[in-house]
Amino acid sequence: MTDSDAAERMEAAFRSARLGDRDEFALWMAMVEIPLRRNLSRSAREVDVEVVVQETFLRMWLIAQDRQRILEGDRASLKYAFRVARNVALEEMRRSRRDRFVDLDLLEALPEGRVEPDPPDPALRRAIRECMDRLPAKPRSAISARVRDGMLPDRDLASGLRMKVNTFLQNIVRARRLLRDCLRRRGVPLEEIRT
């Protein structure tokens, strides 16, 4: 599937969600999640990206159900999701009173809809990779599948690993907890590994 085909499928899914199709909205979320998380990567030290992503999806569902709002243009739903996520991140920073430590002018100056982040810290990448390698087999395979194929629904990821969905999700939770503990032992600051 080409990029333009994927973009059209994404917009078609969002249009179907506007008609109340929850499965199509789930597909739209799966297609948008990775670009959205990449776009939020610069804010990862200041906000809980998971909270921002979930709140963005909730707001996008509400927008989809609002017949008065019409999103037009190329990749309109993705671009609007980027804007919503940016606003949610700013709200989250202000809510947690961490904005005094964040250069909001820098955040304002970031290009909207940026998908590719700056290269990450190599030491942090190495620590994450080493901690991933130390995970028990099932949690490691679950979290690796989520990272590698995050655009697929959990049901498909679980099926590919021959796990029940609930077992897959339990392994994701276990992997995150073990990764957090491992990274903490390696001296990664706690604000970088929020759960």
CATH architecture label name of the largest domain:
Orthogonal Bundle
Main beta sheet, described?
none
In total, the number of strands is 0
**Helix content range:** 55-70%
Q: Enumerate the spans where pLDDT stays under 50 for 5 or more consecutive residues.
A: none
Q: What number is the mean pLDDT? A: 81
Write down the overall geometry.
globular
Q: What proportion strand?
A: under 5%
Structural classification? mainly alpha
What's the CATH class label of the largest domain?
Answer: Mainly Alpha
Question: In a nutshell, what does this entry contain?
Answer:
The protein is mainly alpha-helical and 195 residues long. 67% of the residues lie in helices and 0% in strands.
Keywords:
0% strand; Arc Repressor Mutant, subunit A; Rna Polymerase Sigma Factor, Chain: A; 195 residues; mainly alpha
Structure description:
Helices cover 67% and strands 0% of the residues. It has 195 residues and is mainly α. It folds into two domains: 3-109, Rna Polymerase Sigma Factor, Chain: A; 122-193, Winged helix-like DNA-binding domain superfamily/Winged helix DNA-binding domain (Arc Repressor Mutant, subunit A), CATH 1.10.10. Helix 1 (3-18) crosses helix 2 (22-39) and helix 6 (122-134) packs across helix 9.
